[in-house]
Amino acid sequence: MTDDILTHSSDKQGILTGSCLLMDQEPEILSLRPEQFADYVGQTEVVEALKIAIEAAIQREEPVDHILFHGPPGLGKTTLAHIIANEMGGNLTSTSGPSLEKGGDLIGILTHLEDRDILFIDEIHRTPKIVEEFLYPAMEDFAVDFVFDKGIHARSHKYRLNRFTLVGATTRVGLLSAPLRDRFGIFRSLDFYNESDLAKIIRRSAALLKVTVDDEGANELSSRSRGTPRIVNRLLKRVRDYSQVRADGIITKKTVEAALVLEGVDEKGLTDLDRKYLKTIIEFYKGGPVGIEAIAATLQEETDTLVDVIEPYLLKVGLVTRTSSGRKASEAAYKHLGFSFQKRMFQ
Ligand code: ADP
After folding, report:
1. pLDDT tens readout for residues 65-120
2. Rounded distance, CA 293 to CA 326, Å?
3. In terms of pTM, does the model score above 0.85?
4. Tell me: the pLDDT tens digits for 150-199?
5. According to a count of CB atoms within 10 Å of the terminal CB, is the N or C end of the chain lower?
6. Which residue among the candidates 105, 117, 122, 197 is catalytic per the annotation?
7. How far is the CA of 34 from the centre of ligand 1 (A)?
8. How far is the CA of 160 from the centre of ligand 1 (A)?
C-alpha cells in the first residue's frame, strides 16, 4: 500500500500533503469538492436514491450495497464516493483500475479495509482481468482466496475481510464484464448538468475562492462549460485571473467572454479539440459516416480520449450523431463551424 493511491477521509491532510499535492494547490482543491450531500448540486434522483440506501444501511448497521457510477469525466463520481464515505462514517481508500496491476495490489488494499469503509476504484473498466477475479469473492462474500505454493503443492486459504462498500466509477459501462457489473447492487448514471445547476456550482466555488461573480457572468460561464462541474471550476479560475489582471476583479459577462477567447473556448463551450474533431468529419470525411478509428488516426489522438472526453457532450447537444456505419456531423455542427450544409448534400 502506498500513500499515493490512498486518501483517507479522516486523514486527508496528512496523506495528501505527504505525497501528491503542492502546498499551494492543496486547500483550493479540497475546498471546491463538496464533502456532504447538502453541497452537492444537481443529480437529484441519484442523490435521493443514495440517501435512502445509506440511511437504510445505517439503520440495519450494515455497509451500503456496492455502487457503480457511470458517466463522462468531471461529473462528480469521485465526489460522490467521498460523500458516501463521510455519510457512512468510514474511511475512503481510492485507487484506479489501471494502477492495480497484480492481484496482490488489490489484496493489500482489501485486507486493510475496516467495517463500513469505502473502496473507490476509478476507471474500473480498466482493471486487469486477473485482479478483477479477486474482486468477485471480495464483493460477494467479503473474503479473498490466498493461494500458497504452486503446482501439486498449491493450497488455498480463505481470508475474511471486513464488510466494506466498493464504489466503482466508469466512463464506459459497456466495457465492464457482466460478472463484475452484476455484483453491484446500485447502478447510477450521471448526466451532464443543466445551466442553472452549473451557475449554482459557480456561485459556491466563487464564494470559496473569495471572488465576486455577477449573475450575467455566472450564466455566461455556465453556458460555456460543457455541462461539466470540473470544467466550470477550471474556467472559473482562469476567468478569475483575467478579471483580476485586466479588469476590476469582478467576474462579468464581458470578462468571461474575453478570458474564454484566450482559453480557446467558443460560445457553445467547445474547445479546440472539439472543433478539430467536427472539422475532421466535415472536411475530411464529407460529413460522415466515418469510424472513430479513422477520425482518431487523422487527428493523431487516442480513440479513448475521443470516445470518453470529446464525444459524449457533442452527442448530448446534437452536434454529432452515431449510426451503425459511423459518426456523422449534424446540420447544427455545420452551422456552428460556418460551413454550408447544402454544399455537403450535393457532394
Ligand atoms: P469524476 O470523478 O466524475 O471525474 P469529480 O467527482 O472528480 O468527477 O468532480 C470534479 C470536480 O467537480 C470536483 O472536484 C468538484 O469540485 C466538482 N463537482 C463535481 N460534481 C459536483 C456537484 N454535483 N456539485 C458541486 N461540485 C461538483
Report:
1. 999 999 999 999 999 999 999 999 999 999 999 999 988 889 999 999 999 999 99
2. 10
3. yes
4. 778 878 888 899 999 999 999 999 999 999 999 999 999 999 999 999 99
5. C
6. 122
7. 8
8. 34
Which amino acid is it at 292?
Answer: I
Q: Is 167 in the pocket of ligand 1 (CB under 6 A)?
A: no
Catalytic residue (one of 7, 77, 105, 280): 77
CB-ligand 1 contact for 90 (6 Å cutoff): no
Q: How many helices (H) and strands (E) does the chain have?
A: 17, 9
Residue of 171, 228, 252, 255 marked catalytic: 171
Kindly state the cell numbers that stand for 303. 480513440
User: Is the distance from the beta carbon of residue 184 to the nearest atom of ligand 1 less than 6 Å?
Assistant: no
- DSSP annotation string for 225-274: STT-HHHHHHHHHHHHHHHHHHSSS-B-HHHHHHHHHHHT--TT---HHH
Handedness of CA 17, 19, 22, 26 (dihedral sign): negative
| d(C-alpha 179, C-alpha 272), whole Å | 39
Q: How confident is the model at residue 13 (pLDDT cuts 50, 70, 90)?
A: very low
Q: Closest by alpha carbon to 162, among 110, 108, 87, 90?
A: 110
Does the annotation mark 230 as catalytic? yes
Bond into 312 cis (ω within 30): no
Ligand 1 pocket test target in 33, 77, 94 with most atoms within 8 Å of CB: 33
Q: Cβ atoms within 10 A of the Cβ of 41, count?
A: 19
d(CA 218, CA 271) in angstroms, rounded, equals 19
Whether 240 is a known active-site residue: answer: no
Asked about 171 being catalytic, the answer comes back as yes
In the residue annotation, 155 being an active-site residue is answered as no
From the list 78, 95, 170, 252, the catalytic residue is 78
Answer whether 42 contacts ligand 1 (Cβ < 6 A): yes
Q: Name the band, by pLDDT with cuts 50, 70 and 90, for residue 277.
A: very high
Q: Quick one: cell of 311? A: 464525444
Active site residue 78: yes
DSSP-derived pairing of the beta strands 67-70 and 165-170: parallel
Chain position carrying cell 475530411: 284
